[in-house]
Specification:
The complex is a heterodimer of chains A (683) and B (329). With 683 residues, chain A is α/β, with parallel strands linked by helices. Chain A has 18 helices and 34 strands. Chain A folds into five domains: 148 residues, Rossmann fold, CATH 3.40.50; 174 residues, FAD/NAD(P)-binding domain, CATH 3.50.50.60; 86 residues, no CATH class; 170 residues, FAD/NAD(P)-binding domain; 61 residues, Alpha-Beta Plaits (2-Layer Sandwich), CATH 3.30.70. In chain A, the strands form twelve sheets. Chain A has a five-stranded parallel beta sheet, covered by helices on one side. A five-stranded parallel beta sheet of chain A has the order 20-27-21-22-23. In chain A, strands 2-1-3-4 form a four-stranded parallel beta sheet, sandwiched between helices. The longest helix of chain A is centred in the first third of the chain and has 21 residues. The N terminus and C terminus of chain A are likely disordered. Chain B folds into two domains: 126 residues, Rossmann fold, CATH 3.40.50; 113 residues, no CATH class. A five-stranded parallel beta sheet of chain B has the order 2-1-3-5-9. The chains are: A alpha/beta (683), B alpha/beta (329).
Chain lengths: 683, 329
């Protein structure tokens, strides 16, 4: 136990207790905490203690600076909010005043005390204990220096949807190299599939394709389509990435994109990707007419040559006019290694599979469609030439039901709101009404139209004479309730069973066609992708931002940023903004030229490491490697983010966490317990 | 010139440490040649009063094995501390409580109940040992059992530590060699508080088995495994091996012959609590997120205290059961 009578050393500690307005002062007697620090902790080196309304304000910071100069403080404790919020602030104060920034500590008496207690006396006693522990800890702090690393100016953007394109263009326009990797054969992402965009109803292709073309032809943007990032090593400013190029069976350097191969290919297959299963493509194809790059891709699973065991057909090769021939049946997977400084992940989303809700009949009842199918149908370049027709391809529906929140805001599937479906459903309602004159019903739980001019659009759709039924659809069926219902409606009619919660009654609405507004889901492989890039996914699969409000673009891994729907459902303007924001963050790093990294790092004491390899699989940042020759584990200091997982796991105590040494932690515990007896029993 | 005095004492111990010393074979003759064995109850007759009569610090070195369980143990610990220049906590019991230390999981009354009232015990009159007992010839006394087992350094100041249950004989021989050199003025004593006869790493460092990245989805006891391969890490094969968290020095005796390390050499350097360390280490490589998977792993550890704290409980952060600790004066 700490000896109360002897001063620890010649250290001169200043303790600052923040009121945080009434956030802390409303529950904790801050004056009493300051008095306690000044009197009871005098023997521990505390030379002064003050309380102040807002320590983080300019005046608050100046108070500390002044004391450091006048009172020759050597260490500083700020009892305020969580270090997540203001650790940097107060370290900055110390640095400006000539005290090593790591000789300051924060005692969280807001999150850990004021916000979680109501009993003032007990909360004040607990705040004192925490301050006492922090004082003990700060005494054991070592002065540390930031680690400096250079930044590679080339940037990797993963995902060629609108968010990724935007990020790539912004960085390239600023004059820096960009590697843009897209999994599919063309840039464009989901936006390329849409017909019109809400609320302005401008054509998606008209606003997207210029950006695609700009990205495709930009001298600073190196495009890797039909490619995936396989491995990421290194750390902020110094990543080495391995990109896997899937074989396209088309020579990118020679092909002119004339399209004769596509025209001559005799194989027609259902296009369940771009055309959402309602259109066709060839075995060698462009994903869509405006594809960037303008290069076809050959699908070996349907190509006659491959299906026939590498024999026959070869029509594409025969008709290819280029010399040498662009068709390369023997093309192999390729791997390219690149060095980049920063990474923007804009990997987008997957559509909720409406088949998972069997009572809605998608996949079973022919005239139940998804919104994506409708998008393709409404598109003039789509499979129906812009006509809204039933599954038979010719009849026009007279009544259409649009079901909102399919797979979203639903405990069984996804609790989240997919954010865009309300507006998308309103847009679909408007387009269907416009093109078919059909009676359109919207079945919604709540209408959410918070974007700019979104609610105006909703009012416009209401004025269109579209019906709105507030209630969650229970079932969509083609079986009539009784002979009377059957005789009232034709064969093939779909019945939408719904509780109209405004009218307070069950309704059964016969329609010809149903459109399911399926929600947005995280990419199915988001967990693996996250692992590759060393970032975390929430339990439902969206990438986690560094701070949900204050830092939505950055991640816990330095130099890896997220933009667009990869972090959660968003509309187009939000995705574009995030693409730009990510680029701004990247450019900020590039312009700095080098980065100062937190020196809070783990390190291995080689002579104590037995090479048991227990820690080897644990590092979320891939900073741990094993030196097989010396039989010891090593930690890459620049990769390490100081999370402490390995420090806790090492059974030999051979891994040290800078800033979190045993001496610091045990001193803190002793400090806490020294005052524990003063805490009244909390019932 | 008279030879320096040597002493060895056993407190609450099994006698294994004594045998380990004798296991140094003919080396024991060097001991006799260089030291005057002043007190060693296991090897020769001696009376406590003879020790009490010695001058303070007249014994150069005492190897103290066993933990402090009774008032007699405590008395001898204090007596030998006073009479010895160098007091060595010798073996696991003296250093960390060892197997007897597991009794700290039970308050005294439960220990007596187990020992004197268990179904297999014939004790119709419910007799219990008494501190003092009147018989026609006078008063008989027994040293009373203390509330909890303590390690030597929890009772007196200790100069050196020799871990192991028991310490390996080759290590004892090496320590003896150093002592003799010190006596002859050919070597200096190691710094006070040093751990002697052990390495600075953990058992894995000396283990010949092949190690890889670890993922544990099931733990088994050795008899539950159909087969054990002779080349790979035992932990990776699903055995709870304490090797990663146990100080090196034994040449990885047990794991090298296919028995998991049980942790007798104690915590690695700088580690405060061996059991906690081993527990966090194992927990961090357990691959189980679902309740059933977690249960499957936990079911492989039927005796957690005995598995993680088999040797170190009395010297751990927790030390003992709360009720037992409450009885401590």
């Amino acid at each position: 136990m700490t000896d109360n009578s002897k001063p620890e050393s010649q250290e001169r500690i200043g303790v600052y207790v923040c009121h945080c307005g009434t956030n802390i002062a409303g529950v904790v007697d801050v004056e009493s905490v300051a008095r306690f620090a000044a009197e009871d902790l005098k023997d521990r080196g505390v030379v002064l203690a003050r309380d102040y309304t807002f320590m983080c304000s300019v005046a608050g910071q100046e108070l500390i600076e002044q004391d450091i100069h006048e009172q020759q403080l050597t260490r500083v404790v700020v009892a305020a909010c969580s270090p997540h919020l203001h650790e940097k602030t107060f370290r900055g104060v110390c640095e400006r005043s000539g005290v090593n920034p790591y000789l300051s500590e924060m005692a969280s008496i807001r999150e850990h005390v004021a916000w979680v207690h109501t009993d003032k006396a007990a909360a004040t006693a607990k705040a004192k204990a925490i301050v006492s522990g922090t004082v003990e800890r700060v005494l054991k702090n070592d002065p540390l220096e930031a680690i400096r690393v250079p930044i590679d100016a080339q940037t990797l953007v993963v995902g060629g949807g609108i968010a990724g394109i935007q990020a790539a263009l912004e960085v390239a326009e600023a004059g820096y190299e960009v590697v843009l990797v897209e999994r599919e054969a063309s840039l464009g992402g989901h936006m390329a599939q849409f017909d019109k965009t809400f609320p302005t109803l401008d054509c998606a292709a008209c606003i997207l394709t210029p950006k695609m073309a700009a990205a495709g032809s930009h001298p600073k943007i190196h495009l890797f389509t039909w490619s995936e990032v396989e491995k990421v090593e290194g750390f902020v400013g110094n990543y080495t990435v391995t990109v896997k190029k899937k074989p396209r069976y088309v020579d990118e350097d020679v092909c002119t994109g004339c399209g004769i191969c596509v025209e001559k290919c005799p194989v027609l297959v259902v296009d369940d990707k771009f055309e959402a299963g309602i259109g066709y493509r060839k075995a060698i194809y462009w994903p869509f007419a405006q594809a960037v790059p303008n290069l076809p891709v050959l699908d070996p699973d349907t190509c006659t040559y491959y299906v026939g065991g590498k024999g026959g057909c070869k029509a594409c090769e025969k008709f290819c006019p280029t010399v040498p021939n662009s068709i390369k049946f023997d093309q192999k997977e390729e791997r390219v290694t690149l060095r980049v400084g920063n990474i923007v992940l804009a990997t987008g989303w997957d559509l909720f599979d409406a088949r998972r809700i069997p009572q809605y009949g998608y996949g079973r009842l022919p005239n139940v469609f998804t919104n994506l199918e409708l998008e393709r149908m409404c598109n003039a370049a789509g499979p129906t030439g812009g006509k809204v027709v039933m599954r038979d391809g010719k009849s026009t529906p007279e009544t259409v039901g649009i079901v909102h929140c399919v797979g979203s805001r639903d405990r069984t599937y996804n609790r989240h709101c997919s954010a865009i479906c309300c507006m998308q459903s309103l847009k679909t309602a408007h387009l269907v009404k416009e093109r078919t004159g059909a009676e359109v019903y919207n079945f919604y739980i709540d209408i959410r139209t918070p974007g700019k001019e979104y609610d105006e659009f909703y009012q416009r759709v209401l004025d269109d004479g579209i019906h709105f039924v507030r209630g969650k659809v229970a079932e969509i069926t083609d079986i009539p309730f009784d002979p009377a219902e059957a005789s009232r409606n034709g064969a093939g009619t779909l019945y939408v069973q719904v509780e109209d919660t405004l009218a307070g009654m069950q309704r059964r609405i016969p329609v010809d066609m149903v459109v399911l507004s399926a929600g947005l889901e995280p990419r199915r492989d988001s967990a693996e992708v996250g692992k590759t890039f060393g970032i975390a996914c929430s339990s439902n699969g969206w990438f986690i931002e560094k701070h949900a409000k204050m830092d939505p673009i950055a991640t816990m891994t330095e130099g890896v940023f997220i933009a667009g729907c990869a972090a959660g459902p968003k509309d187009i303007p939000a995705s574009v903004s995030q693409g730009s924001a990510a680029a701004a963050r990247v450019l900020n790093y590039i312009r700095q030229g080098e980065l100062a990294l937190e020196p809070v790092r783990a390190s291995v004491l080689a002579e104590q490491c037995s090479g048991c390899r227990l820690c080897n699989g644990l590092c979320p940042f891939n900073a741990i490697s094993f030196d097989a020759a010396r039989k010891v584990t090593e930690i890459n200091a620049a990769l390490c983010q100081g999370c402490g997982t390995c420090v806790a796991a090492c059974p030999a105590g051979a891994i040290q966490g800078t800033g979190f040494s045993n001496a610091q932690l045990f001193a803190q515990i002793e400090g806490l317990l020294r005052d524990f007896s003063r805490v009244p029993e909390v019932v | 010139m008279s030879k320096p005095k040597f002493a060895m004492y056993w407190a609450a111990s099994c006698g294994g440490c004594e045998i380990a010393v004798l296991n140094i074979d003919e080396k024991v003759l060097d001991l006799d040649a260089n030291f005057d064995v002043a007190f060693w109850p296991a090897a020769m007759d001696a009376k406590y009063k003879d020790v009490e009569a010695m001058e303070d610090e007249s014994i150069l070195v005492t190897l103290f094995n066993g933990s402090i369980r009774t008032d007699e143990n405590e008395h001898l610990a204090k007596l030998l501390r006073r009479k010895s220049k160098i007091l060595v906590a010798f073996g696991s019991c003296a250093n960390e409580g060892c197997i007897p230390g597991l009794a700290n999981l039970s308050p005294r009354e439960q220990i007596f109940e187990r020992a004197y009232e268990s179904p297999s015990t014939e004790n119709p009159n419910h007799l219990r040992p008494q501190a003092a007992c009147q018989v026609p010839e006078g008063t008989l006394t027994l040293p009373p059992l203390q509330a909890v087992i303590r390690t030597l350094d929890q009772v007196v100041e200790v100069d050196y530590h020799v871990p192991g249950c028991p310490p390996e004989s080759h290590q004892i021989a090496a320590i003896l060699d150093v002592l003799i050199q010190v006596v002859k003025g050919e070597a200096e004593l190691p710094p006070k508080g040093a751990v002697l006869g052990a390495g600075n790493s953990t058992v894995c460092d000396e283990c010949a088995r092949k190690r890889d990245v670890k993922v544990i989805d099931k733990l088994s006891r050795i008899q539950e495994l159909p087969q054990l391969n002779t080349t790979d890490c035992l932990l990776e094969q699903g055995l709870l091996c304490a090797g990663p968290a146990t100080r090196s020095g034994c040449n990885s005796r047990c794991p090298n012959v296919g028995a998991p390390c049980i942790g007798c050499y104690g915590a690695a350097p700088g580690v405060l609590d061996q059991g906690a360390r081993l527990m966090t280490a194992i927990a961090s490589v357990v691959d189980a997120n679902e309740p059933e998977a977690i249960d499957r792993v936990l079911n492989g550890i039927p005796d957690p205290a005995g598995s993680f704290y088999r040797f170190s409980l009395a010297h751990s952060l927790l030390r003992a059961n709360r009720e037992a600790l409450a009885e401590e004066p």
